[in-house]
Amino acid sequence: MSAVEARGVGKVFSSRSGDVVALEGIDLTVAAGEFVALIGPSGCGKSTLLRLIADLDAPTTGELTVFGKTPQQAREAQDYGIAFQQAGLLPWRTVTANVELPLELHGVGKAERAGRARELLSLVGLDDFAGHFPHQLSGGMQQRVAIARSLAERPSLLLMDEPFGALDEMTRERMQTELVRICAESGAAVVFVTHSIPEAVFLSQRVVVMSPRPGRISAVVPVNLGDVRGEGLREDASFFAAVTAVREALHGTPVTARGVDLR
Amino acid sequence: MSAVEARGVGKVFSSRSGDVVALEGIDLTVAAGEFVALIGPSGCGKSTLLRLIADLDAPTTGELTVFGKTPQQAREAQDYGIAFQQAGLLPWRTVTANVELPLELHGVGKAERAGRARELLSLVGLDDFAGHFPHQLSGGMQQRVAIARSLAERPSLLLMDEPFGALDEMTRERMQTELVRICAESGAAVVFVTHSIPEAVFLSQRVVVMSPRPGRISAVVPVNLGDVRGEGLREDASFFAAVTAVREALHGTPVTARGVDLR
Amino acid sequence: MTASAVRRWVAPVVLGVLALLLWQAFVVGAGIKPYLLPSPTAIVEQLVLVLPLVWSAALATGMNVLVGLVVGSVVAVGAAVVAARSRMADTLLSPTAAALSVMPIVALAPALNTMFGTTSTTPRRLVVSVVVFAPVFVNMLRGLRQVQPVHRDLLKAYAATPRQITRTVTIPGALPYLFTGLRIASSTAVIAAIVAEYFGGLQNGLGSRITSAASNSAYARAWAFVLGAILLGLVFYLATLALERTVARRQGG
Amino acid sequence: SSDSGGEAEEEPSMSSEVLIPVKLQLQWFTQAQFAGYYAAIDQGYYVDEGLDVQIVEGGTDIVPQSVLADGSVDYAIAWVPKALASREQGAGITDVAQIFQRSGTLQVSFADKGISTAADLEGKTVGNWGYGNEFELFAGMTKAGLDPATDVTLVQQQFDMNAFLAGDIDAAQAMTYNEYAQLLEAENPETGELYTADDFTAIDWNDEGTAMLQDAIWANSEKLASDEEYQETTVKFIKASLKGWIYARDNPEEARDIVVAQGSQLGNSHQLWQTNEINKLIWPSPDGIGMIDEDAWAQTVDVALTTKNDQGATVITTEPDAEAYTNEYVEQALAELRDEGVDVSGEDFEPIEVTLEAGGN
Amino acid sequence: MTDLATTLAPERTAPVPVRPRERSTVGRRILVGVLAVLLLAALWELVKVVVPDGGGHLGEASVLPRTDDLAMPHVWDIVDRVLQPETSATGSPTVLSAMLSACWFTLRVALAGWLVGSIGGLLLAALMQRWQLAESALVPWVVLSQTVPLIALAPLVVGWGGRIHVGTFEWQRWMSVALIASYLAFFPVTIGALRGFQSPPAAQVELFRAQAASWNRTMLSLRLPASVPYLLPALRLGAATAVVGAIVAEVSTGTKGGIGRLIISYAQSASGDPAKPWAAIAAAALLGLVAAGLVSLLGLGLGRYRYAEVR
Ligand SMILES: Nc1ncnc2c1ncn2[C@@H]1O[C@H](COP(=O)(O)OP(=O)(O)OP(=O)(O)O)[C@@H](O)[C@H]1O
Ligand SMILES: Nc1ncnc2c1ncn2[C@@H]1O[C@H](COP(=O)(O)OP(=O)(O)OP(=O)(O)O)[C@@H](O)[C@H]1O
Ligand SMILES: [Mg+2]
Ligand SMILES: [Mg+2]
Fold first, then answer.
1. Whole-model pTM above 0.95?
2. Is B17 close to ligand 2, i.e. is its CB under 6 Å away?
3. What is the CATH number of domain E79-305?
4. Which ranges carry the ABC transmembrane type-1 domain (chain C) (predicted)?
5. Which end of chain B, N or C, is less packed with Cβ atoms under 10 Å?
């Protein structure tokens, strides 16, 4: 069963100043365990699509299923974990308490919560900051806490909206490597929104390129860089080739490639 | 005469929890008309260095001159224009009035101000938004207004602190191309802080790589991609080679390059 | 102590001492008669004399402030919670709060005395509650409305119940705003309690002592009680500040 | 103000036309309590003496004797004990005419409470206004062996008698000419009619022997001592004022109309009642209106020295000096008035009958 | 900013554009206001029906008001009283016209006080913005100044004001009242203005520094406009407190002509004419609203500066 299945999904926002067609005719299937990146210019509806999958908004047209259920059923069954562009931590809770939040809301016992939080914090390299409050952390560290929180319930689908937007290049690259590892280990499907072409290419098995007004899928670029993605990959010619392919899909016009080839 | 000349510049911040050495022994010369990018991990002192040059802070040690004067003299003589990471527009002023602000502060006449503002807004592609207020613009558009403002007085030195941070990839690339053109035309020297390696490489003649705690210059990577930088350059092998070189300088350890060569 | 802490405490004290010295010098130097302006030393002299009275009067007034502050705040917080939930309640309560905030309490006090009895402390406490209501209500409501969209989305994504949302997000997020309101309320509450004594009622508080001393031309004694009033204001102010710090510390502020 | 007096002297040619400006500070708002001064203005008595008198109303926190000592006004009306307290605080003022010969303060109770002497106040809720108006009450209680601080519950009254009518206060302070009238203007909910004097009992401090002297004309001591012009003005001012009071005695209704025309908020019947009651406090004045009676003065000083209020303070701590009062000016004024054939003692003064209307209207 | 200053000032909120007020919302506000008054009147009568005449007591404390006609006259009696003459004297104006002219007097005095207090507050805030030391030294005293009861100050102001004679200028009683009103009004304005002057983010402040703009210029072009969202509510509150101050001061100093004096005068007949003082109380409350409303008009022309109004 596929993780996400969208058929002709559209979304119109009605506002005082008129209707905005945020999405139109979106057909997309994300297989279980697959990593899909969404890329496209600002305002093309990436976040909107993610919010529809998460049942934070309802589509105006079309059909959307998550693991064969309606998005609402999937949300209530806690089938997915989510991380937003802003970390969205609760400032009055410690790092641990923030990570524990979803577990607490769903009645997981104290001891189990604590154990899971410890595990997750060491996964994102924040063991030493368990008792800190969010404002004592840098933006990147906060984002890592949010990622740990999204993983707390071992979801089989991860929805991530530009989670690395606030990080500096180096941390960002480190987190990307980590994320690839975590997903490989947990076998979770991921829908990952980003503005960065190299990031999309590095992380995903397919890059879904969107165009704005109305938001449509303009291209899907498959990336086959193999399962083991190390740092070296970023300097590999095949990587640059994929980056070029996505850029061209994004700009709409093919640019003559000089010196590199798609492998 | 060089635009910026730093000799053994250091900066220590004293705070309640102890001293922070933000910069140490910085030696840097920026020639007139030269485009220099500063790159380095978060907290390595890039912004601090820029602020010292702009006389928004004073160095603790060392000597710093701007066009042969002290930074204070240079500030008072309005030798530089500056753009911050946040746009920092005045919300109660229209786009035009925001661009006109530096001219107004220095007593430039009304007609001349209006003419210059029109010129600058068309440069950054915002002709249609002259009468709008900042909150009616997207983050990227606001940033472009700030850039227009920094150019208002045709400064011979431009200081820019991650001005494109808020932009999406496509707009960002467009703005980069524009900036290269503007600088080439005006002959201004630029000190440009960024987190993005491709951006640094695309824009500058030299990339200054910094390392943190204490902030030092760890490497200077010369980039020779020629004077005419078009969109095609981004998919050129020489571009990727320079990107790789900067990445290696940044990570400190050379990574075996596969399939590409530095030209 | 850091330089800024030194400045924060020393500068006002130095200024205060300087002002007192000037005052003293002026009164003594220009030979100002006590009925026109008593000297600081005369005030302190009187303060020592009537200290037990100042203490008991401050206690009586302080009790009025405390009860009024608590009642007014509790009602205001309750009203804010209701207003945050229902638009209808908001359209009625918000203008009410605006009207209460500009209500001249001097006019209200005598009427309340008649309604609740001059010998009762209720009218005074009610006046304090009225004064306290607006700032607490307005700030609390703002705090409750301050829930960030990202937090709302997050809790929805976790399929949290409304009660869970209130407990984990809304209330903790509104606390800092509540304290802002309380800080404004605490210092105005003291003035209100004193002004409420102006027109009558039990003669056990600072307000009636001040008027009675002043009308006997015992200005130094009057100012000794005024000093008591200032200290009472300070106590309430610092108490709310301390409460806020404690809560903030527990929340990692 | 005294300077302007000097000016008038410098230009004698104008003196027949130029009036000496004089300011009089009252201790409360316009009402019949001050009918004599308003009558003197209305009847032109001050102008006859060459004075241009301007009356300044009081307020709750205005201390007339301070305003006088400041030099902001030329004369002030004040109760003797309060003025003595200000003298101790350095206010240089002198009582130059004691208008009210008796105290008008009562302590009123409902008849069924059975309070008719100070001793009956024990354990009761006792009202007073504060503002220094409470010493007769305290002296009365002390004399009856009660400690005002512990043996009664003290309550400050408002400007109305609601607390008393509602039963919050057992014994309320009332001036014969004001608050007592307010009681008689209120509706008795049991009968639907106005209350009558039979519904109440009153303790009169004149009877209890703790009465203190009330409204007197005070002058600036310093100027009295050094400024001859001011001395003359003082005599003129007293003389015209006394004439005003004599007018109010002989024409209470006209006096009432004069006060009402000045914009008092109290109604017609109330003001007439007040005029009449004030007359009772002044007349008869066997030695002549305004004369300071040694015995009454001594009693006032004695109470002021010995009675402690609930704060443990007495009104004054030392015997006032000789400058505190003088009959010198009032005697001159009386002599001139007697020469004019005016009855200054009102030996056969008879109060009129006043019927109060609801709300004093 | 020191702790004390953070205090009384409202939290900063994210810049949210304030939509220009549409006519319909103004109409709605008036409607809601009328509705609220009617509701209050209904509540008043309901209490009179439900609560026993003697009120309600909880142990020693009285918790419910007395509801007899002396304590709580009927609404219609109050309205009727307003339309009757003040006193039985011939030519006595109606209570309504007396109150209107009294309110007009007090409003003018209060606005004079508000003006003085606001200007003083702005200058003080500018001083504190200019020198941090001044801020540290003054803010605690500014806060404490408000705990000094007006009743202690009134005689001083009147006493010292009475000594001022400069040429033909002579200190008037109403000036004392205005001065006392300004003493209350200056406080919210000072705190609000200080908060507003300090509100521009570092990026904007440094922009001006980078342009080598002088302090005056920065104040004029940056801090003053930026402070508008803080200043407007503060000025509004200042107007309301100025009214309160003017009323207290009128009572205290016995100044004739204003609503404060009427409150006392009417209170003297509260026992025999209970509806009369309630009329004055209602007038005083309305006056506070009117003053605050008048000052709100200031905001009409400043729409563009109110991008982040702090209510
Ligand atoms: N709640 C809303 N009401 C009205 N319009 C909305 C709403 N949310 C989004 N939109 C509009 O829908 C379109 C898509 O928005 P969306 O946030 O999905 O873009 P995005 O691709 O995530 O952009 P970005 O990369 O800037 O985050 C935009 O034009 C936006 O203005
Ligand atoms: N005003 C200050 N007071 C104390 N420490 C400061 C101050 N400004 C900067 N620092 C410290 O100096 C160091 C350098 O800061 P700086 O802002 O220059 O870094 P940066 O390279 O610009 O980082 P980023 O990429 O995150 O903007 C950091 O460790 C920071 O904590
Ligand atoms: Mg988005
Ligand atoms: Mg920086």
1. no
2. no
3. 1.10.3720.10
4. 54-242
5. N
